[in-house]
Design brief:
The chain is mainly alpha-helical and 100 residues long. The chain has one domain: NAD(P)-binding Rossmann-like Domain (Rossmann fold). It is 44% helix and 8% strand. It has a two-stranded parallel sheet. The longest helix has 14 residues.
């Protein structure tokens, strides 16, 4: 299970406090296992790639790894005016790993 790094969380919150009056929002996205080319390469290089993928998926609360676009969608939201009242937020995008 992956947890957000304490230093990143503290930095995010400190910067949010320091720059809110300047109209600058600071939030943190904490992605979980994501099917990037590096992870796909790791799966493909296993002796049994299908078994490796099933094992990896089975460790996730949602029973699958994330897709890069799912992480990007959260980042796009945080950068948009829809999130204009959010600052200092730590947003896990990890398929529920931090909840488990």
């Amino acid at each position: 299970m992956s947890r957000p790094k304490g230093g990143v969380v503290a930095l995010t919150r400190a910067l949010a406090v320091d720059h809110a009056a300047d109209g600058i929002r600071v939030n943190c996205v904490c992605p979980g296992a994501t099917l990037t080319p590096l992870l796909q390469e790791s799966i493909d290089s296993a002796l049994d790639p299908e078994a490796r993928r099933r094992l990896l998926d089975g460790t996730m609360l949602m029973r699958r790894v994330g897709r890069p676009e799912e992480i990007a969608n959260v980042i796009r939201f945080l950068a948009s005016s829809e999130a204009s009242f959010m600052t200092g937020a730590i947003v896990p995008v990890d398929g529920g790993a931090t909840a488990a």
